[in-house]
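Molecular record:
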Amino acid sequence: MAKLENILEVYRNIEESLNKRMTEFKKQLKTTTNETTKTSVDRLATEFKEFKSSVWNVLSLLKSLTTNLAAQIDEVDSQSRRNVLLFGGIDEAKGENLISTVLSTVHVLMDLPQIQPSAIQHCHRLGTSSNNRPRPILVRFNDMSTKQMIWSNKKKLKSTSNGH
């Protein structure tokens, strides 16, 4: 993964190079208008084409870097969700212990008594509290195998009134 410092350094170099070329181009443009010779106008036109090509190359490079960064962000984002499940339809209670609530659902309704509290890295309810329906519970597991085991037993929740 490209480091942010490296990308910023590339950006600074590009910016410096473009500013330098623009300054040179302006100087040449001023002297060319004073010298009205055809050769200097031709030379200036050639240099402008080269500069234009250089700018397009730089923009292409920046687009490539941005696309690469977006892909890396997507990868990190999907990795962070890899061990996460969302439990919906579990009633809320004041002062509830969510780990116990989730484990109760998993043990009783899904028939997975082997899942231990240590298998859960973190859990919390999403959104703001509402009287209409219980908020979903986001559960992050310590490993993918626990998540897969629960995911493969989700069908058992369909016949219950507590699960979705």
